[in-house]
Amino acid sequence: MAKLAIAAAIYPALVSAYTWRFTSQPTQCGNVTIAVNGGTPPFSVLVVPYGISPLPNNIEARKIQSIENQNGPDISFKLNFPANSQFVAVLSDKSGFASGGTSVGVLVTGSGDASCFDASKNVAPAFFYNIEPGGVIAQCVSTRIWWDPSAVQGTPHFQGVIPGGQSFEIPGNNPTTVPNQGLGFNWVPPLRGGTTLLLVSGDNRGNGSGGSSPYTVGSGPNNDNSCLNSDSPSSTPGNPAGGSYQTSTNAPSNNSGHETNVAAIAGGVVGGVVALLAICLIMFFFMRRRRLRAEEKSKIRPDLLQADEGDEGGASGVPQYYQPEPYLMAESTVGRSSLGGLTSDDRRFSQTDTDGRPLSTLLSDTASRSGTPDPSNMSSSTRKGPLRQMRPVNIIQHSDAGPSAPPATAEEEEPETVELPPAYTNINK
């Protein structure tokens, strides 16, 4: 019971005794009206910036606004915030700070008026404060809040603002001076780990004159919960204070039409692009392989020993045209006859067959050998494949016996014969 009494004394407004709401959605540089139902005047509202700034280069042009109304229950003021930014409103009456509760983040909608803020300049509070350990607020872990006494007016005061929850005053009695930390006090946060907290500071110049900083309460190294109880400040379930209003740019619209499934369309487009790329890669692969095969074929060198089309090779596999023919020796003849100035023992022939190939038999003997065909009478139809043109070659047969021929006279003198090997210059490729 003693702990509950102390908690009620420190946080007098844990439960709202009255209600309030925005009469319209707040707009940029527009007038905002809060209608209050119940409570005890005077009423006041603390408007604290929430979330990141929507201005270019993250310029922070929002300042905490604290507005009081001494007469009626309604509170009206001009909101000096840009469009697409958010704020948290804390309503108080005579009973104490945050007695009316705290709203969640409220979205500021656009308007044609931008004269209430400077989008090119960051705002600065009247004084700064610090916490130790730096930048950390943990559940039930002692935290020192301190400031430069020369920068404040009077005694600074601090509030803990929980969006959509129970905001509270932070007790700062009996501040002390610590070397390198200035003037300040120690505070044990009675907050559960994971709670979103806006630490707001002010002095005699008004609530929020020292600015605010956002924190997420940690659980601490030992997860100490000795300072927690059922009355510890936290976010409240159910409808937040201030009524229902648009809280973000992604809030659902009132249109009853069917919404387009953007994710499904995007997925279909991506899938189609991937399939098209796969088809193109497959086509490129086959075309490249076909081109490489054609290049390999073009690099094959012709083999002169390969048989031509329709030319059948013999038993040795060599084309018929290149197969050797036996040399048929002529039979002995009676008598000696002269042919071109030579005897029958030294005969020279220049006859060739029909395809220009020299014959290997003696013409004088072909008629007397019934078993030997006459090459000169062979038709081209008896040979397979096309005939090749050969260079005419003289064939000279020498005998190693018998009397020599009588010397030729001057009129019959034969020109000198020079034997040269064939040049094969007339063979078709």
UniProtKB/TrEMBL annotation:
Bias (Basic and acidic residues): 344-356
TM annotation in the entry: 262-287
Stretch list, region Disordered: 198-255, 303-322, 338-429
Biased composition (Polar residues): 214-255, 361-383
The entry's keywords: Membrane, Signal, Transmembrane, Transmembrane helix
PANTHER family given in the database record: GLYCOPROTEIN 38, MEMBRANE ANCHOR OPY2 N-TERMINAL DOMAIN-CONTAINING PROTEIN
Organism whose genome encodes this protein: Mycena indigotica
Name recorded for this polypeptide: Uncharacterized protein
Signal sequence bounds: 1-17
